[in-house]
Amino acid sequence: MNQVGKIEFKKINRISPSQYYSMKNCAYKSLLAEAFGKKPLLPVSPNAYFGTVLHKMLELISKGAVRSEDDFNKMFDEQVKTVEENLQIQGYDFIIPLQMNVKDFGMKKILLKKHLRALSEQPPKASSAKYYPEKWFESKDKLIAGKIDLVIETGAEVEIIDFKTGAITQDVLDDTGETFSEVKQEYKEQLKLYAYLYFENTDNYPTLLSLVDLAKQKFSVSFSQSECNSIYDEAKQLLYSTNESITKGTFFANPTEANCKYCLYRPACSFFLKQLETDYSFNDVSGSVKNVVKYQNGNVSVFLQSGEKQITVTSLSSDKYDELNESRSKQISIYNLRKEVSEFVFAATKTTMIYE
Ligand code: SF4
Asked: Are 18 and 190 in contact (CB under 8 A)?
């Protein structure tokens, strides 16, 4: 059974613009990530692993390292292979091959290829335009740093572009109750931090901040220089206060569904585990093992006691039987389950993991 072990908190030396929003929502998550050397304690969905392939390919295309369809196919296969090999090393071979486990694998590949065609079909840009793909920027105090996907400088015009392989917008309600689509707040703040980093390094602010998705749709993010300055100050302050919590030994977390759902350090988070004792809305459960049953088809069910509630977890693989049986009366937590129709009944999925 998986164990978390002793947590040795470490100071976070710097944060990236892409990390800032998540840290703002729960700084404890960033501390746990640092303590575990950024090695997640839970697998993410296969789509997220595939997202890293898509993003890498977009970087290579924008860099001009992938120009022809042959290059594309070769490099795409190589990137998928690399991710799959890493998954195997981490013991997550149950989501390999990615092609069989990722939703819309083929469609996403086709969309990605369109970036390649669009690039080759483009008329030559103004000769004054300079392209800087994957450009690293850091603040002078080195506290905030990150790689910008693409910077395009055309005379006095400077555009910062960030590629996203998932949805860039989300539906929000206005004052009258109507829904409208808006660029996600986390992406707006990420780009404004990039704008500040660009300014610190060049003494100029960019003129345009853009997000480009897999379907090549471009979304602009409006900004002001004072907004970018304030976000930078807030990010620095957040870094100081987060590191200070290690010295003081007083930690704060924010265990909400939105924050914790995709947090890969849930097994190590005492705040989250406390929340699980009374909140059954998550796809994770925690309790003391009361009974373990192995059925004729090999499936295993475990019955947990959580306060007054009895929780049933079904469809666990037969190789879990012995260790669960040896854990009777022990407190365990099971992550990445699927809720069944009946209350307090959950089923194991491919990514389910058990921690004691
Ligand atoms: S599980 Fe939730 S509360 Fe705990 S660190 Fe992760 S996001 Fe924060």
From this structure: yes
